[in-house]
């Protein structure tokens, strides 16, 4: 008697919106119920991190810190790890990466228009920026009144990594977690790699090329959609917190492949912050990267 032919593995796709961006979890499996369960685990982790680290709602630690009126706030171990990481990147970047710089959004609106703020509007915000002004003694953070932190420069990539690890803890399946173009895979699909599109700078194209990924992560930083244009000059949304003004001459896009999404995102962000020195930096770091000017 012949046995039944095994059902070929398919890719279960689950899409949702979180952290203000379209998200997708893909699971290669023959079991559609398992695929749906694993995808829901990934979505749940994204929503947990969004609720915990949003600055807009009193659901978590960032809102508590920003509204503490200068009083110290004791944070949990997960948050302490993120703050330690932010402090480390701030030091390595010589202040170019600063989680207190989010207040600059009060002056800068990168909507594709020509509305560049007047220098006094930017200057007025500079006293509210500077990680060195923050009191951070694990596990207590003291933020001077008027200042705020924003973990948006880390959280999406962190959520990708956490979602991938949560899924992997539940089942050893090939999974791709993609949150707004920042992604991580648990391992290659059966007999093939994951095909990942790099966003094109040309509006007429949907992608600028394809990457084949087994196990690892990819993150992209760029200004294709967020910029200002005045008198023929393009102002990138990549702001230097030391000046309050856009970085001069950055690439249009930097994509980095690394072991984790946080690593890839950090390298791509720092490359953008270094402007014309982006490629020199990435080569020195021996990063697998694609830079578009």
| Helicity, as a percent range | 25-40%
CATH H level: which superfamily? Answer: ApbE-like domains
Structural class by SSE content: alpha+beta
CATH architecture: Roll
Largest sheet report: 7 strands, antiparallel
For the largest sheet, list the strands in their spatial order. 1-2-6-7-10-15-16
Quote the average pLDDT: 91
Topology, number of strands: 16
Quaternary organization? single chain
Low-confidence stretches: 1-7, 201-207
Secondary-structure element series: EEHHEHHEEHEEEEEEEEEEHHE
Total number of helical segments?
7
Percent range for β-strand residues? 25-35%
The N- and C-terminal alpha carbons lie at a distance of 63 Å
Short synopsis of the structure:
This protein is 30% helix and 26% strand.
Description:
The chain has 293 residues and is an alpha+beta fold. It has one domain (11-292): ApbE-like domains (T-fold, Roll), CATH 3.10.520. It is built from 7 helices and 16 strands. The chain has helices spanning 32-53, 61-66, 77-92, 119-123, 152-170, 261-273, 278-284, and strands at residues 10-18, 21-29, 73-74, 135-137, 140-142, 175-179, 182-185, 194-198, 209-213, 216-222, 227-230, 233-236, 239-240, 245-246, 253-258, 288-292. Strand 4 (135-137) and strand 5 (140-142) form a beta hairpin. Helix 1 runs antiparallel to helix 5. The chain is globular and about 60 Å long. The termini are far apart.
């Amino acid at each position: 008697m012949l046995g039944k032919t095994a059902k070929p593995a398919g890719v279960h796709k689950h899409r949702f919106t979180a952290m203000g961006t379209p998200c997708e979890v893909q699971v290669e499996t023959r079991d559609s119920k398992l695929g749906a369960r694993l995808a829901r685990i990934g979505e749940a982790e994204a929503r947990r991190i969004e609720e915990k680290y949003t600055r807009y709602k009193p659901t978590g630690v960032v809102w508590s810190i920003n509204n503490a009126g200068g009083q110290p706030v004791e944070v949990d171990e997960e948050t302490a790890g993120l703050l330690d990481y932010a402090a480390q990147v701030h030091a390595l970047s010589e202040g170019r990466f600063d989680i207190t710089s989010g207040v600059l959004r009060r002056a800068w609106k990168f909507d594709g228009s020509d509305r560049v703020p007047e220098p006094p509007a930017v200057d007025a915000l500079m006293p509210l920026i500077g990680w060195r002004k923050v009191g951070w003694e694990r596990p207590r953070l003291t933020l001077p009144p008027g200042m705020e932190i924003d973990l948006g420069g880390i959280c999406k990539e962190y959520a990708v990594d956490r979602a991938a690890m949560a899924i992997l803890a539940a089942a050893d399946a090939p999974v791709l977690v993609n949150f707004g173009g920042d992604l991580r895979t648990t391992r290659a699909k059966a007999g093939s790699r994951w095909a990942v599109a790099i966003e094109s700078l040309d509006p007429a194209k949907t992608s600028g090329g394809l990457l084949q990924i087994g196990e690892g992560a990819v993150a992209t930083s760029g200004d294709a959609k967020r910029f200002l244009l005045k008198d023929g000059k393009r102002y990138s949304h990549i702001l230097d917190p030391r000046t309050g003004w856009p970085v001069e001459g950055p690439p249009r896009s930097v994509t980095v492949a690394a072991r984790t999404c946080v690593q890839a995102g950090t390298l791509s962000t720092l490359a953008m912050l270094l402007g014309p020195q982006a490629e020199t930096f990435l080569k020195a770091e021996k990063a697998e990267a694609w830079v578009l000017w």
